[in-house]
Specification:
This protein is mainly alpha-helical. It has six helices and no strands. 76% of the residues lie in helices and 0% in strands. It starts with a helix and ends with a helix. 35% of the residues are buried.
Length: 93
């Protein structure tokens, strides 16, 4: 709830910082928040690193698909985090 409230109040960075922790302890809730956040295409580049980090805790086909789609961002920190998350998930599948 704090992530969505923080995001709706325009505090994008704090919302993004909380996402990996939520996903670690409750992957299904983390996925629910990620699903809400990725619909906002204008904010996606700012949240992409934290979303990629969060996805390593969510072992689903959908999380893998989203990680692969995040590779489109040209920011190297996004690509690095996507690679890290993909390698973690590869060990789990």
């Amino acid at each position: 709830m704090a992530i969505i409230t923080t995001h709706k109040n325009g505090r994008i960075y704090p919302a993004a910082q909380l996402l990996p922790v939520l996903s670690l302890y409750n992957p299904s809730k983390g996925w629910g928040v990620i699903s809400d956040l990725i619909t906002d295409k204008d904010l996606m580049p700012d949240l992409a690193v934290n979303i990629a980090e969060s996805l390593k805790f969510i072992k689903t086909r959908e999380s893998l698909d989203l990680l692969r789609s995040l590779m489109q961002f040209s920011r190297s920190e996004v690509a690095d985090e996507v690679q890290n998350s993909l390698s973690v998930l590869a060990d789990r599948f």
